[in-house]
Design goal:
This protein has about 130 residues and is an all-beta fold. The protein contains no helices and eleven strands.
Length: about 130
C-alpha cells in the first residue's frame, strides 16, 4: 500500500513563495503519475498540476501556469510544488495524490482518477 506525506505548508505574505513536498512510500513502484490539488474552504477540490512519473511530463491547470511549478526527485519518490507570487486566493489545503493504476490519462484534472491521497497541508496567504 502506498502512502503520501505532504509537508511545507504554512503562513506566507502575499507575493511570497513557498515550496511543498510530497514524499511517497510503500508500494509506489507502479506509479503512473503524481498530482497536486487544493481545496479552499467552501469550495470543491481543484486541480493544480500533474507529473507523469516515468517521463516527467507535466500538465498544469491553466490558471496556475507561470506561478506554480512542479518538480520531482525520482530517486527519493518525492514531488514538489513550487509556488511564487502567492495571493490570498491561493489559501487552501494542498493535497498530493498518486495515480498508481494509470487511470488519470487525459482526465488528469479529475480528482476521482487518483487512488492514493496525502493528508493535506495548509497554505495561508495573508498579511
Amino acid at each position: 500500500q502506498a502512502r503520501l506525506v505532504e509537508s511545507g505548508g504554512g503562513l506566507v505574505l502575499p507575493g511570497g513563495s513557498l515550496t511543498l513536498s510530497c514524499a511517497a512510500s510503500g508500494r509506489t513502484g507502479s506509479t503512473y503519475a503524481m498530482a497536486w490539488f487544493r481545496q479552499a474552504p467552501g469550495k470543491e477540490r481543484e486541480f493544480v498540476a500533474r507529473i507523469r512519473w516515468s517521463s516527467g511530463f507535466i500538465d498544469y491547470a491553466d490558471s496556475k501556469k507561470g506561478r506554480f511549478t512542479v518538480s520531482r526527485e525520482y530517486a527519493e519518490n518525492t514531488v514538489y510544488l513550487h509556488m511564487n507570487s502567492l495571493k490570498p486566493e491561493d489559501t487552501a489545503v494542498y493535497y498530493c495524490a498518486a495515480d498508481l493504476l494509470g487511470t488519470s490519462g487525459g482526465m488528469y484534472y479529475d480528482a476521482q482518477r487518483y487512488d492514493t491521497w496525502g493528508q493535506g497541508t495548509q497554505v495561508t496567504v495573508s498579511s
